[in-house]
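Protocol step 4 of 5: obtain the predicted structure for the target chain.
Materials: sequence only (see below). No template structures provided, no constraints applied. The aim of this step is simply to have a reference model before the mutagenesis design in step 5. Sequence pasted as it appears in the construct record:
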Amino acid sequence: MLTAIAHLKQQNVEGNKCSFDRCKCQFFKELNAIFTKVGRFTSEEVVLNLIRAKCLPVLLYGVELCPVVVRDKKSMEFTVTRSLMKLFKTEGRCR
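Step 4 output (structure tokens):
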């Protein structure tokens, strides 16, 4: 168990600060795999359930071990927002 925790910290800690860049890259990798497999032919509800089951755990991997600062939280929120924008085919903020 301690070996697994040490490995998790090693993956997310660079220097003295936590980095979730690998988690975000893996999140988008999983998201693109979902879009490749099911395409745009299935309902949004099914895709949302797949994102919840496959992508979010990848993004949140190791969050318990590192203190999450506001910058990291906003970055993860943006990652999820971009995936939803891709799913629902929206451009950006309404003006």
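Step 4 remarks: The chain has one domain: 2-88. Residues 71 and 77 are 10 Å apart (CA to CA).
Proceed to step 5.
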